[in-house]
Amino acid sequence: MSLLDAYSGLMESVTWRVKGAVNEYNEPTYTDSTISVIWFDDERLIRNDQGEELQQFAYIQTTALIQQGDLITRGGYSWPIIGIQKTPTWEGEQFRIANLGQRLI
After folding, report:
1. Between the chain's N and C termini, which has fewer beta carbons within 10 Å?
2. Does residue 96 form part of some domain?
3. 30: which residues sit within 8 A by CB, 6+ positions away?
4. Which domain covers residue 69, as residue numbers?
5. What DSSP state is assigned to residue 90?
6. How far is the C-alpha of 51 from the C-alpha of 16, rounded, in Å?
7. Does any domain span residue 105?
């Protein structure tokens, strides 16, 4: 059971685009799946694990194993995941918080 289970009424479905290998044109490929998230519109500067200062435009909370570099698609737009925070507990990881960059068309 996750801490997010108490907020199931706030959950919405989005498309998680997992970044994979590059194709013959040196472009990344993606595998799509649907996940449940809590979405927050929140614009601020963040610092990622590599120490880069980046502009966040939204963030999500989810139990999916999202990673930096993946994309989240909502309402026909995709947002790159520019940072990740994990919430470890004695029983393992509860959920992840993903910082989302500027949306792509």
Report:
1. C
2. yes
3. 17, 18, 19, 20, 71
4. 3-100
5. T
6. 25
7. no
pLDDT digits (tens, 9 = 90+) for 3-39: 677 677 789 999 999 999 999 999 989 999 999 999 9
Instruction: Check residue 94 and give left, alpha or beta (phi > 0: left; psi -120 to 50: alpha).
Output: alpha
The SS3 assignment for 69 reads coil
* 91 backbone dihedrals φ, ψ, rounded to 5°: -90, 0
Q: Give the domain CATH number at 26.
A: 2.40.10
Single-letter amino acid, residue 50: Q
Q: Which residue has the tokens 């994309």?
A: 71
The pTM of this model reads 0.86
Overall residue count recorded for the chain in this entry: 105
SS3 11: coil
User: Distance of CA 83 to CAs 10, 46, 55, 79, Å?
Assistant: 22, 8, 10, 12
